[in-house]
Amino acid sequence: MTVLIVGGGIGGLTLALMLHRKGIRSVVYEQAPQIREVGVGINVLPHAIKELAALDLLPALDAVALRTKELIYINRLGQKIWAEPRGLDGGFDYPQFSIHRGRLQKLVHDAVIERLGPDAVRTGLRLGGFFQDEGGVTAHFVDSRFGKSSETVRGEVLVGADGIHSVVRRYFYPEQGRPSWQGVLLWRGATEWPKFLTGRSMYIGGGMGAKLALYPIAPGSTPETRLTNWAIGIRVADPAATTPPVDSWSRTGRMDEVVPYAARFKVPGVDVEALVRATPTCWEYPMCDRDPLPRWSFGRVTLLGDAAHPMYPVGSNGAAQAILDARCLSDMLARSEHPMLALSLYEEDRLPKTAEIVRLNRTGGPERVIDEVERRAPSGFDYIEQVMSPAERDMIVKGYAGKAGFALTQVNR
């Protein structure tokens, strides 16, 4: 069997590694001219790290990332709402990693090249079209730089792992339109900064209309510094907005726009405004997702990762769910008598789980605990227990973990 993977992001590359482990050949086609370290920080939760550990990637992760020790939710005034240990410190059998997204992608890419060979990832090729028959899938790729015809290839399965603007998804859903937007713009950046708390701690704070995420993603140049990632999300339009600004997809952000927002947040031990001002470059993204689909698989073609279920970046679940998709799909292809049955079983398992996470993330996911506290106590509080009981906070945060598949008992079983 040969699996054609469209998209060289974290999901597509991880799928290639997992298929290789099962003895299944694959080729990754990426439209970018080369795999580059783009993006800023992400968190990869223990349920996904469990899968990467099975691919023997833990040493490589430790070389470029940090094992997250604790997560703290605060309001915009810096008052603690919730805190919990994470990863190994939280009793999991596997760590949680805070990492630069581009470094994670390159790490997996390098493993693919080392194990599958240099021809396993073909860059600079954009999917032009495909058709399938009883025996397989024929795909045509064109040179993404010059538009000239490049090559036609054949495989038994085609997987669209090509992101929120997926060409493969659009083939089956041509009327889907642009991604859904609820009016929140997200600015993200990273720079070297003095460490705070344990040096492996993560803050998420703010309220209903403004959120801040703050965590280190790599060691700094000295023991007292860290490469520190920050993300600020601000509601700038009516929540009923349905389409994001045309010109603001992953563009370079303007510091004069984001610095006043940074000044809204108080974080114990961190001058957020100074941190943002010290960042050389930041990026602006509209926080978007898409409605869950009724189906992913069509004969010998299926979707994976953001192509299947783009979700709001709350709860640290985007990359993690793509990795879980890859594990499930590789398992089904290895154990099923026919590829079409494998794709059907994969969809049956993963589609309802990810659809639930998409819906939960629209209401804030575990960060909804911050919104609820601000709604009840917009001017702060003396004791958090007077605002929300431990049981209610636990229900929001731990309830999300269970539905997203990274509760302690789910990961360690």
Structural features:
alpha/beta; 413 residues; 8-stranded mixed sheet; 5-stranded parallel sheet
Low-confidence segments: none
Quaternary structure of the protein:
single chain
Count every helix, treating DSSP H or I runs of 4 or more residues as helices.
13
SS-based class: alpha/beta
Mean pLDDT: 93
- Beta content: 25-35%
Distance between the termini: 32 Å
Strand arrangement, major sheet: 6-5-14-15-16-13-18-17
Rg is: 21 Å
Largest sheet descriptor: 8 strands, mixed
Characterize the overall form.
globular
Q: How many β-strand stretches? A: 19
What is the percent of helical residues? 25-40%
Description:
The longest helix has 24 residues, at 339-362. The chain is globular. The protein has 13 helices and 19 strands. Helix 1 (10-21) packs parallel to helix 4 (101-116), helix 1 (10-21) runs parallel beside helix 8 and helix 2 crosses helix 8. The model has no long low-confidence stretch (mean pLDDT 93). The strands form 4 sheets. It has an 8-stranded mixed sheet, sandwiched between helices. Strands 8-2-1-12-19 form a 5-stranded parallel sheet. A hairpin with a 4-residue loop joins strand 9 (125-132) and strand 10. It has 413 residues and is an alpha/beta fold. The chain has helices at residues 10-21, 46-54, 58-64, 101-116, 167-172, 255-262, 272-277, 318-335, 339-362, 368-376, 384-387, 390-404, 408-412; strands spanning 2-6, 25-30, 41-44, 66-67, 70-75, 80-85, 97-100, 121-123, 125-132, 137-143, 149-155, 157-160, 180-194, 201-206, 210-219, 225-235, 251-252, 282-289, 301-303.
